[in-house]
């Protein structure tokens, strides 16, 4: 399905137009003393992990409209990510969710990953729903539960995830804790935090020294009065309590409307505690839409902080793990993921074009208008030829979504897997 040769052939009719646009942009940027190839190379190097749980059609609590051809097994999920990576060469790793993706045959899986040129970047635990075989319920919390037996079960589940991660070479263990309360008075605020910190410490101790624990925060949902880890400050304090291998994970959808996410990113970089990203698009809350679909300027400003941090010798933050965390309710999930990665690369490219020396000078001189104009100048540059050139140079499709459609991928997946195949996930 969509081999490299096929992708190469699909590029041919697009090359002439691409060369014209790329050469125009190269000349334009040369006038601003920007060399294009180093920017293209950084785009080629940039990789975003694809979540196993976003390859099937997502839904809301009101329902779901499956598209057909969804991956029915972990092997088929890996095959789908391999296909995405053949198209854009920017998605060479996959995030797994336990228990949805428990590996049955580890050596066979490792072989498939190797042949596909993929790695597992992160294992994600799940204590936000009860599994059939588990003795205790998470209805009133997991790592923060008032019951020691429930906490122990949740800790054990996380340690199992760490073990799977070790087997599959994943060096990240991600914890998103759905614990919280729905009513005032339901939960003792400080004791719930303390129990969570102690539970996380038990998991942290079970991790190998080269593994990082990412702690994700979320202000509301599934609980609507309080969440035990509602904000970056709580995540950050837990990381400090645990040790240097604990880092904060920023999920773009996990903020209240109008939160200045780029400022949070800058703060965490300053503290050396920014561990990872879950990219998605959000209008109101945890909407899980296509990254960059509704707030492209915000995405650019976030990348502006990341690039600024990466270029500042004073910033000692370790490498950041970039991951998508989304749910595709309307679009074909694979097309949505291709769009998300493209929007992420575009925002990154624009951030790389910011004239940092001029920006710093404007900031130091309190030249508000000049500083803003410098950012707008980069943001308003049409960088699509740079992203397409990165795809081309790394062997991908000049236009991944068009190639996906021309290759009739969805129709083939439906033929292979059936119209009613269902994937585990959100
Ligand atoms: Mn997330």
From TrEMBL:
InterPro entries: L-rhamnose_isomerase, Xyl_isomerase-like_sf, Xyl_isomerase-like_TIM-brl. GO terms for molecular function: isomerase activity; metal ion binding. The keyword Chloroplast does not apply. Coiled coil: none annotated. The keyword Calcium does not apply. Keywords: Isomerase, Manganese, Metal-binding. Residues 105-287 form the Xylose isomerase-like TIM barrel domain. This is Sugar isomerase. It comes from Hymenobacter wooponensis.
């Amino acid at each position: 399905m969509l081999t490299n040769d096929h992708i190469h052939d699909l590029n041919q009719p697009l090359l002439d137009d691409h060369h014209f646009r790329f050469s125009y942009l190269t000349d334009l940027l040369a006038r601003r003393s920007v060399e294009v190839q180093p920017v293209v190379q950084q785009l080629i190097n940039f990789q975003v992990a694809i979540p196993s749980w976003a390859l099937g059609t997502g839904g809301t609590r009101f329902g779901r409209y499956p598209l057909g051809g969804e991956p029915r097994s972990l092997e088929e999920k890996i095959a789908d990510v391999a296909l995405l990576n053949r198209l854009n060469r920017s998605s060479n790793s996959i995030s797994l969710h336990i228990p949805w993706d428990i590996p049955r045959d580890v050596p066979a899986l490792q072989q498939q990953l190797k042949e596909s040129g993929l790695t597992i970047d992160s294992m994600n635990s799940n204590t936000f729903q009860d599994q059939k075989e588990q003795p205790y319920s998470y209805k009133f919390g997991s790592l923060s539960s008032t019951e020691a037996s429930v906490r122990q079960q949740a800790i054990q589940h996380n340690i199992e995830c760490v073990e799977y991660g070790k087997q599959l070479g994943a060096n990240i263990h991600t914890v998103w804790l759905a614990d919280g309360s729905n009513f005032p008075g339901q939960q003792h605020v400080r004791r719930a935090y303390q129990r969570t910190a102690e539970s996380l410490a038990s998991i942290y101790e079970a991790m190998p020294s080269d593994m990082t624990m990412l702690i994700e925060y979320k202000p509301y949902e599934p609980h609507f009065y309080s969440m035990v880890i509602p904000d970056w400050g709580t995540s950050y304090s837990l990381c400090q309590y645990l040790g240097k291998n604990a880092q904060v994970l920023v999920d773009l959808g996990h903020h209240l409307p109008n939160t200045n996410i780029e400022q949070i990113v800058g703060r965490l970089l300053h503290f050396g505690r920014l561990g990872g990203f879950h990219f998605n698009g959000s209008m109101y809350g945890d909407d899980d839409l296509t990254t960059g679909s509704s707030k492209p300027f915000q995405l650019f400003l976030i990348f502006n902080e990341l690039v600024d941090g990466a270029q500042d010798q004073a910033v000692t933050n370790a490498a950041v793990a970039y991951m998508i965390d989304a749910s595709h309710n309307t679009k074909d999930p694979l097309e949505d993921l291709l769009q998300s990665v493209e929007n992420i690369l575009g925002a990154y490219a624009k951030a790389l074009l910011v004239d940092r020396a001029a920006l710093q000078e404007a900031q130091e001189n309190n030249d508000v208008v000049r500083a803003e104009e410098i950012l707008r100048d980069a943001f308003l540059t049409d960088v699509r030829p740079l992203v397409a050139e990165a795809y081309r140079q790394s062997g991908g499709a000049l236009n991944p979504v068009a190639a996906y459609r021309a290759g009739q991928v969805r129709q083939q997946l439906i033929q292979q897997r059936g119209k009613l195949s269902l994937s585990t996930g959100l």
